[in-house]
Write a structure and sequence with these properties.
- InterPro entries: GH, GH13_cat_dom, GlgX_Isoamylase_N_E_set, Glyco_hydro_13_N, Glyco_hydro_b, Glycogen_debranch_GlgX, Ig-like_fold, Ig_E-set.
- This protein is an alpha/beta fold and 702 residues long.
- It has 15 helices and 29 strands.
- It has an 8-stranded parallel barrel. Strands 22-23-24-29-26-27 form a 6-stranded antiparallel β-sheet, covered by helices on one side.
- It is elongated and about 85 Å long.
- The chain starts with a strand and ends with a strand.
């Protein structure tokens, strides 16, 4: 390889190929010198090294002609090894470029990956070379034929999100070629895409695909970090989900997946983990950030030998530091502009908003995103909590953000298991959680509603287990949440009892119906539409196997059909996905409000009824004339009116339909005692209907 060395440029950071060579740029404020190492395609032999002598501000840079895409490289960074003052430089450790667009493989666990001598404390400095055990960064070529690809731009209030895992979704799919199962290529395969289209979802929210680390203790147990919430490369699609190669091919394969999903009108949202890295606490490995500039990249404690930990993982990225904030913003822009993704769900987002110790919704992180012309225009979803004090911030994020609504999850679970709770909260959650989101010019679509997520029971397990069963995780069932707000319907785990199984099926339909008929943005977890189980494991983060993967041979076809019809009902009727809040005011020219709550005798509910903690049934009228929004052509949106009856009692309740002011006639189109959505008969105003125990009835105006 004939090369020529030039000074290069400090921007852009990372390795940038221009057709003739590569510019390398690495940010390190406290480094004393930096070396660039090149490796052959086998990832085993060092073929060249270069001392980087140019430094502009805090960026070390060099340009080398003759280098092409596919080249493997890493850095060695010199500086003080002084943990007591926050510095952990060790040039014996080869380091991954934080801006690497691809990473060649995964970590091969060895004591050499630690900057200190294993067996001693972290103040000792280890001299073993880590290069044989660490994956290398890859020079990539950004060129890709996107053709006519463009983002679907589905309005948030019309979105239906499907949370899934790239590998788990297709690893066991019999109709996808075996050689690509569990990869980006499989996720973009026509079989997978046709399933998603028929289901009716508008976006896939992918569990982390940023290159991540499986912790050593999991590897030693024969487990893995399946969920991937342990990022070590914020620009690199993880190589484990690549069917095409490890030297940059994974980037093109990811782009092909996005392109295929976009052609089907489906958006791609990434679950991103910018709150911490996979390097852990002071006893963790030195793989990248720690060895490049520990004192800059991480939030250090008052004693800088240690880390502030708002994430439960040992460290927290320092978003107060401009270069770290820039890295996160560069990463987000890269995934939007170069990889064409449509939005992000931010793991433990409260940790990103901590200025000192307290969460500050006006922090620099939000300021920078809000003013960014690229990132501010995509879907931004926060997981609005971390483990630190004051970290539970549901409803506290600024305009432009949606949030995982944990209060919705808890309330809906409590309601259907019959727990004592204020009926007022259930009404709030059903109508978009205005108590949480109405301020700051936010709308109902700020609430991402979910009953289950990757973390916790599946929907099937929610109605089948009272207790977690995490023995397979190897932690004596001590891990995972113990308070699940679940009910096994009378027996723990699978049973042949037809009465229990029938009740479980109805309870699942109740929760799915509540989810898709609530205002806000529904999120469905992959497999919940057809009865996927994790055998009671509510913390399957380390189970890269049949516990977590979707089993396509064990599908509850009736539940799948019911879910498809529910999603179609929601998408066809704008009354269930309003863009604006209910006002509770009469519609012009009528005496009928946009929403009305009723008692069983068809009288309207008064204030004192909302305070009854024993109430478990209610009826709500949704006025199709009261949507108060216009379509893209400026025409008023009008829909049919609907009457919803909820009964979480263990006994039947009779309800009288409202008088003719609300509708002369009604068609019952949904009854969760049945596994389909169809015409169940016609009714007149004032008729009495029986609402069976633990069920929902839905009537549509004629």
């Amino acid at each position: 390889m004939e090369t020529k060395i030039y000074t290069g440029n400090p921007y852009p950071l990372g390795a940038t190929y221009d057709g003739e060579g590569v510019n390398f740029a690495l940010c390190s404020e406290h480094a004393e010198s930096v070396e660039l190492y090149l490796y052959d395609s086998s990832d085993e032999r060092e073929i060249a090294k270069f001392k980087i002598t140019e430094k502009t501000h805090q960026v070390w840079h060099i340009y080398i002609s003759g280098i092409k895409p596919g080249q493997l490289y890493g850095y060695r960074v010199h500086g003080p090894y002084d943990p007591s003052n926050g510095h952990r430089f060790n040039p014996n450790k080869l380091l991954i470029d934080p801006y690497a667009k691809a990473i060649s493989g995964t970590v091969k666990w060895n004591d050499a990956l630690f900057a200190y001598t294993i067996g001693d404390d972290d103040l000792s400095m280890d001299s073993t070379d880590s290069a044989p055990f660490i994956p290398k960064a890859v020079v990539t070529n950004d060129k890709f034929d996107w053709g006519s690809d463009k983002p679907p731009h589905i309005p948030m209030h019309k979105s239906v999100i499907y949370e899934t895992h790239v590998k788990g979704f297709t690893a066991m799919h019999p109709d996808i070629p075996e050689e690509i199962r569990g990869t980006y290529a499989a996720m973009g395969h026509p079989v997978a895409i046709n399933y998603l289209k028929e289901l009716g979802v508008t976006a896939v929210e992918l569990l982390p695909i940023h290159h991540f680390l499986t912790d050593r203790h999991l590897k030693d147990k024969g487990l893995s970090n399946y969920w991937g919430y342990n990022s070590i490369g914020f620009f690199a699609p993880d190589v484990r989900y690549s069917a095409s190669g490890s030297h940059g091919e994974q980037v093109s394969e990811f782009k092909e997946m996005v392109k295929a999903l976009h052609e089907a009108g489906i958006e791609v949202i990434l679950d991103v983990v910018y709150n911490h890295t996979g390097e852990g606490n002071e006893m963790g490995p030195t793989l990248s950030f720690r060895g490049i500039d520990n004192a800059s990249y991480y939030r250090l404690a008052d004693d800088p030998r240690y880390y502030m930990d708002f994430t439960g993982t040992g460290n927290t990225l320092n978003t107060r530091q401009p270069n770290v904030l820039r890295m996160i913003m560069d990463s987000l822009r890269y995934w939007v502009q170069e990889m064409h993704v449509d939005g992000f769900r931010f793991d433990l987002a409260s940790a990103l908003a901590r200025e000192l110790h307290e969460v500050d919704k006006l922090s620099s992180f939000f300021d920078v995103i809000h003013q960014d012309p690229i990132i501010s225009q995509v879907k931004l979803i926060a997981e609005p909590w971390d483990i630190g004090e004051g970290g539970y911030q549901v409803g506290e994020f600024p305009p432009g953000w949606a949030e995982w609504n944990g209060k919705y999850r808890d309330c809906i679970r409590d309601y259907w298991i019959g727990a004592d709770s204020m009926i007022a909260e259930f009404a709030n959650r059903l109508t978009g959680s205005s108590d949480l989101y109405r301020g700051d010019n936010r709308t109902p679509s700020a609430s991402v509603n979910f009953i289950t997520a990757h973390d916790g029971f599946t929907l099937q397990d929610l109605v089948s287990y009272n207790e977690k069963h995490n023995e397979a995780n190897g932690e004596d069932n001590q891990d995972g949440e113990s308070h699940n707000r679940s009910w096994n319907c009378g027996f723990e785990g699978p049973t042949d009892d037809p009465a229990i199984n029938s009740l479980r099926e109805k309870q699942k339909r109740n929760m799915l119906t509540t989810l898709f008929l609530s205002q806000g943005v529904p999120m469905l977890v992959a497999g919940d539409e057809f009865g996927r189980t994790q055998q009671g494991n509510n913390n399957a983060y380390c189970q890269d196997n049949e516990i977590s993967w979707l089993d396509w041979t064990k599908m509850d076809e009736s539940q799948l059909d019911f879910t498809r019809k529910l999603i179609r009902l929601r998408r066809e009727h704008p009354v269930f996905c309003r863009r604006k809040w209910f006002q509770g005011l009469p519609i012009r020219g009528t005496a009928v409000e946009d929403i009305v709550w009723f008692l069983p005798d068809a009288s309207e509910m008064d204030d004192h009824h909302w305070q009854e903690d024993h109430a478990r049934s209610l009826a709500v009228y949704l006025n199709g004339q009261g949507i108060r929004s216009v379509d893209n052509d400026g025409k008023k949106i009008v829909d049919a009116s609907f009457y919803l009856l909820f009964n979480a009692y263990w006994e039947d309740v009779s309800y009288q339909l409202p008088n003719e002011n609300y509708g002369a006639g009604w068609i019952k189109i949904l009854d969760t005692n049945n596994d389909t959505i169809e015409n169940f008969g016609e009714f007149a105003a004032g008729d009495t209907v029986l609402v069976p125990s633990r069920s929902i009835l839905l009537f549509q105006s004629q």
